[in-house]
Amino acid sequence: MDQPPHARTEAFLVDDAPLLRFHKRLALHAGGGPFLDGYVLSIIGIAMVQITPQWGLNSAQQGLIAASATIGIFLGSFLGGRLTDRFGRWRLYTFDLIAVVVFSVAQFWVDGFWWLFLLRVLIGVAIGADYPVAASLLTEFTPKKYRGPFIGSLTVMWFLGAASAYVVGDLVSGVGDQGWRWVLASAAVPAALTVLARTGTPESPRWLAGKGRVAEASAIITKIFGPHATLEIESGSSAGAIGPLWKSGYLGRIVFVTTFWTASVVPLFAVYAFGPRILAGLGLDGRVANMGSAVVTILLLVSCVIALTAINKLGRRTLLIHSFAWSGLTLLLLGLFPGSPVPVILCLFATYAIFTGGAQVLQLVYPNELFPTEIRGSAVGLASSLSRVGGAVGTYMVPIALDRWGIGPTMLGAAAIALIGLAVSAAWAPETRGKSLADSARI
After folding, report:
1. Is the pTM value of this prediction over 0.85?
2. Closest CA relative to residue 376, chosen from 216, 203, 240
3. Which end of the chain is less enclosed by CB atoms within 10 A, N or C?
4. Where, by residue number, does the polypeptide cross the bilayer (predicted)?
């Protein structure tokens, strides 16, 4: 059982607080946004199997629909980061996912390419806005001993959402030739459940203290951690401002985070948006390809769980470098030997899944630890937005690359991007293991 926080009689920092049931609940419902991100991005791969022949979509249109949610996340992450630093974490914490419910249901009645594209962009905007809000809130409540695994768990929720999408999509799409409508609308269910779970979540005391609302911050800290808990505040910047992000130290951190984040998501998003088609190009087809995508996703989920157990033991830097090195190698082998027997192809995909987990879980850990509270949301939102530019371009290019060059060169391109991530990580990745938020954000 958790130690009752009020039982402690000595003063302690929130960064050194014990792990409470509050933290576990917060991590669970904060993961609702990443779950929906994985679900929405992956479910389109199932739906497109029916939509493409019904609407006669060409490769460019397929790429635009697949990339639409990612485009929305680009816009929403930046906007959500600015708003959450200026107006607080709590205000956006439920409103953004209410929008996901509404737009997901609206997809059921969509009757044309551009309407579907627009709705999925709007869904992406709402999900993107949730990233800096939920991640900042979780970061600012969680003790440093558990911060890495807890923030990294948001990525686990992404893969759980992706795996759920493949299973639900495969089952629901079989209801008829209009099954894709139910497939796309199904995202409203986890979105609504997350909204209900988030009701009553308190505002971040770090954000409140940074705005001068010290009494409110102290009341929340006392209620959760007890009367002897205190808060160490990072050196301040203008809340919601972009200017401080371009300071010498922070600019380097933005470049590092954005580059490694992009290098980790581009191959991954390509695999998810067109997983069944890529596996079909490698010799699998039909339900075997759909289930193969689900198996790979489950392995990715396991990989992220393994990475969470190693993040404090190996450190952030070592975990990131090894993740890029070995996942990039497997993509290279897939590109060089696309005609290998099916068991070999599946083994290589599984190996990629196992090794990419480290880079995936660090996507949110690094930006939340490297920037102070006053600009944390803006930094996470900006890095997320910029990385999604690469993700959107990569997703858009997949069907075009498959049509023009085939599966081998497409996988070689993915390998090249992963190896760029390796080079950037080896050159710039810092180590933030065991540091308080004030120390890790200091430049």
Report:
1. no
2. 240
3. N
4. 26-51, 63-80, 92-110, 116-138, 150-168, 180-197, 254-274, 294-312, 319-337, 343-366, 378-398, 410-429
